[in-house]
Amino acid sequence: MRGLMMDVPLMISSILEHARRFFGDQEIVSRSVEGPIHRYTYRDLAARTAQLAHALRALGVEPGDRVATLAWNTYRHVELYYAVAGIGSVCHTVNPRLHPGQIAYIVNHADDGYVFADLTFVPLLEALAPQLPRVRGYVILTGETTMPQTTLPDAMCYETLIGAQPTTIDWPVFDEHTACGLCYTSGTTGDPKGALYSHRSTVLHAMTAGIAEAARRTESTGCMMPIVPMFHVNAWGYPYVALMMGAKLVLAGSAHDGASLYELIETERVQNAAGVPTVWQGLLDFMTANGKELSSLRSMRVGGSAAPRAMIQAFEDRGIEVIHGWGMTETSPVCTNGSVARKHRDVPNRMDYQTRAGRCLYGVQMRVVDEEGQVVPDDGVSQGELHVRGPWVASAYFENETATQAQFTGDGWFKTGDIISLDADGYLTIHDRSKDLIKSGGEWISSIDLENAAVGHPEIVEAAAIAIPHPRWSERPLLVAVRRPGSTVDAAEILAYLQDKIAKLWLPDDVVFIDEMPHTATGKISKKTLRERYAAGVLSG
Ligand code: AMP
Q1: Residue 368 falls within a domain, yes or no?
Q2: Are 53 and 30 in contact, with CB atoms under 8 Å apart?
Q3: 132 and 19 housed in the same domain
Q4: Do residues 226 and 96 both lie within one domain?
Q5: What is the value of pTM for the model shown?
Q6: How would DSSP label each residue in 18-68?
Q7: pLDDT at res. 537
Q8: Is 356 helix (H, G, I), strand (E, B) or coil?
Q9: What DSSP character marks residue 375?
Q10: How remote is the CA of residue 305 from the centroid of ligand 1, in Å?
Q11: Domain holding 260: CATH number?
Q12: Residue 1 CA, ligand 1 centroid: distance in Å
């Protein structure tokens, strides 16, 4: 039986696109062949790579054609990597340290149509050109002012070639098994032999190389504990991740109470653990009540529902990095990672970033669509429903055509039902589930923001905001809350507390206290149960 996940091909252009969109101001610094240090951003890289791709097409480079580079490590070589592969052609990176005869051999063997070369290699190519009859042109990787006099036939200046081309492109999507790169071994015997990489192999390899880099920090001594149950979306991948990273795996059985978790984390020296906010709150309450501290835990993943700021702050104050992530059963689930960007680590409002629902991860494509069906910008303000695509996103529901029709778009996206905004660094802010939003007098009220504000009160353990029918406003918010044991805080005090934390319109019409919050099987607050309980409305008017 085949799985029902999206058949999204692994494209090299998707790496560039991800970096342009979410790491746009990250730098590439090159010691240029001309001499000076050159610096620009991923955003610049993407713009110039688009220009190069258009220029290659204008030269008549077709999908499958080979394009050679004889170049050092500089930004222009990176542009060639992405542009050549991006249009479905093959980037043949020639090793200039090969014997000249071998260079001629591999350029002819690969049937390279164009050669892009650094200034350094112009004399070498001038000598070899007569042996390269099928090369249609040479592009020198430099600007007008440093363009050399050369006997190379059809020599072009790189900057002139790309200069007038458009800076954007819709990268084509094609079979992930398509070749993207070619590299010949400098074998000691016989002629060099070529390894022909594909988009799929290159993307998977880069992912693994990235994991290996991250694993350095945890391998052998690393110890991971998915508290999130293995029946809840693959325990967020931990049973696979721990084995990939070589980390010790600690499993909590059914004991999710604060005391049991604390004991297991401490005795097994767990360094990283994952769970929903309710579980972490239980652990925190246990620690606070018993004056305990965690001595081994370095980081914790939290997701599945909104993690209150006060809770994140409490763990951060104890030196534990809180990694707030977003995902769904339909997305395997991991789609974001809450590690705060380097540039936001030391800013005074670091917590604002820490409390967002993570940053979009490579491999997941996101678009935010407003009520009119328009895609909104990544400005951190514009809101809409999050749509996702990717190789680990469901393509349909198992034997459920009706649900599939409702949740998947005709153009291949999954509609998450979450109302979010995305910013230019890829941080995701969840405003609500679309069905949990409260619409009061035509204005949307975010139940999540209201709940987060409420649990900031020291006497409130858990809170849920739900919509209650209202004759005038159509809906008004009701806050349902659980008090700390022994607390006598009342509705008036909570409303007074909220007064300066949320918009006036958002102030709940009432606060009701219950002894225990209803939870779903995965530990989330069951708003469905609350809505049923309070459907008749308890608001005074
Ligand atoms: P499930 O499929 O049971 O994991 O539920 C997925 C839903 O949980 C998402 O659609 C979100 O509404 C919610 N969710 C997941 N992660 C978060 C988060 N970090 N903050 C707020 N809500 C979340």
Answers
A1: no
A2: no
A3: yes
A4: no
A5: 0.81
A6: HHHHHSTT-EEEEE-TTSSEEEEEHHHHHHHHHHHHHHHHHTT--TT-EEE
A7: 64
A8: coil
A9: B
A10: 5
A11: 3.40.50.980
A12: 28
Residues 178 and 257 in one domain: no
Range of the domain at 456: 438-533
Backbone angles phi, psi at 261, to 5 degrees: -65, -45
Catalytic residues: 185, 330, 439, 444
Closest ligand 1 atom to the C-alpha of 333? 4
Same domain, 171 and 294: no
3-state secondary structure 408-461: ECCCCCEEEEEEEEECCCCEEEEEEECCCCEEECCEEECHHHHHHHHHCCCCEE
> Would you say residue 262 has pLDDT above 80?
yes
Which of 173, 204, 235 corresponds to the end of one domain?
204
Mutate which of 234, 354, 421, 430 for ligand 1? The one with the most ligand atoms within 8 Å of its CB, which is 430
CA 442–ligand 1 middle distance (angstroms): 25
Nearest residue (by CA) to ligand 1, atom 7, is: 328
Which residue has a Cα nearest atom 23 of ligand 1? 305
Report how many domains make up the chain: 3
| Residue 174, domain member (yes or no) | yes
The pLDDT, as a whole number, for residue 540 is 41
- The whole-angstrom separation of Cα 194 and Cα 472 is 74
Residue 418: predicted pLDDT: 94
The answer as to whether 284 is a domain residue is: yes
Q: Residue 471 maps to which CATH number?
A: 3.30.300.30
- Write down the pLDDT at residue 154: 87
Q: What ligand 1 atom has the least distance to the C-alpha of 416? A: 10
Distance CA 304, CA 261 (A): 19
Cα angle for residues 259, 265, 266 (degrees, 5° grid): 90
Whether residue 462 is predicted with pLDDT greater than 60 in this model: the reply is yes
At 329 the three-state DSSP class reads helix
Looking at residues 465-492, what average pLDDT do you find? 91
In a domain, 20, yes or no: yes
In tens, the pLDDT along 132-142 reads 999 999 999 99
Atom index in ligand 1 nearest the CA of residue 358 equals: 19
